[in-house]
Amino acid sequence: MSDGHGYIADKAAYVRRLKLIEGQARGLQRMVDDEVYCIDILTQVTAMKRALESVSLELLRDHMGHCVVDAARESDDAAAAKIDEAMKAITRLVKS
Prior knowledge:
Metal_Tscrpt_repr; mainly alpha
């Protein structure tokens, strides 16, 4: 198996996106503190949720393209374990 995780090649992009999401969270806190209209806050919550979902899907894509592929090269059992791991992650994403 190769070293590192699938997202490492795009680590800077992930960090940048997560910092934007962190900024969104701080913005939501300010909106509540400033007593902004509830529907406006909910709109921003939805935007933040979509941003997190986007990061999640990209991480999953990287996992499938790197970790699962590497495991498949190693053995059928290793591939099956990584696929099972990915399916559990997908299930958590879909249920959230």
